[in-house]
Amino acid sequence: MIFNLGSINADYFYDLPRLVGPGETLSATAMTTGLGGKGANQSVAAALAGAEVCHIGAVGPDGDWAREALRGFSVDVRHVRQSDVPTAHAIVMLDRHGENQIVIFPGANLDQTPDAIAKALVNGQPGDWLMLQNETSHQVDAAKLAQAHDMKIAYSAAPFEVEAVQAMLLYANLLIMNAVEAQQYEDETGEGLTKLPIDHLLITRGKDGADWHDLRAGKTTLVPAFSVDTIDTTGAGDTFAGYVIAGLSKGLAVEQALGQASAAAAISTTKKGTADAIPDLDTVLEFLSAQDANGALDPHS
Ligand code: RIB
User: Fold this and answer.
1) N or C end of the chain: which has fewer CB within 10 A?
2) Peptide bond preceding 159: is omega within 30 degrees of 0, i.e. cis?
3) Atom 7, ligand 1: which residue's CA is nearest?
4) Closest CA to 272 of 15, 87, 8, 89
């Protein structure tokens, strides 16, 4: 079982000829909306990967559609509370190469309550996972409770904030970062990430694949990225994180969970949108068999 204290955003996508510079005004060529938020995307990915997922979060009076959208992906939304604060949203600006810039209005994501989190996590069992990111409030409260229930904790350091990462080091079993966040951590602390006092570190590197570090055993597993026609990278990291935790929670070997996560992330970049671009497990398995037939690389140590 996976519990996920995570953000729920309305994503507003603006297609632009290029990303906006300082002081510049640009006209969008298209605008679309959909379910997003790093937390919601991770929950959707984990559920589509076949895991049982309970999302813990908050939406505003305007957020019923978001709760229903999550439910539509088979995510348990009984612990998505109704807040008086408006539902969060994100302005996602996309260029022609699929690169993005994102501005977030945090809204109800910062209106979590320790009580509501405790009510959800009271059902946590040893071996269950708690996923956390940086777009909500009360991550440390949730981590403490999960640790008390002997659950495993996966923390995505996104959006990056060095103090938030440091606060989570006492609790996280798995720290997930992209290459930019990993560099920011090392620059701001002067500490090497592989020296951190945690069990596992996952660094996703976009088209350069990902590396999984078992820091206790001193072992690194590299997973290549798959080559696809990318049109939108938004949410690819969330897809990777959701799939990898789903795989581990279902008892897959790390290499297999990483392979599925890398495939799911690649496929998600071939479609526009965030939650709506995440593939289900059948699609991922079909993609992997086709890659296998073409001799694509397996994860290796
Ligand atoms: O990681 C992508 C997500 O970041 C988007 O869905 C947006 O809502 C922001 O949270």
Assistant:
1) C
2) yes
3) 37
4) 15
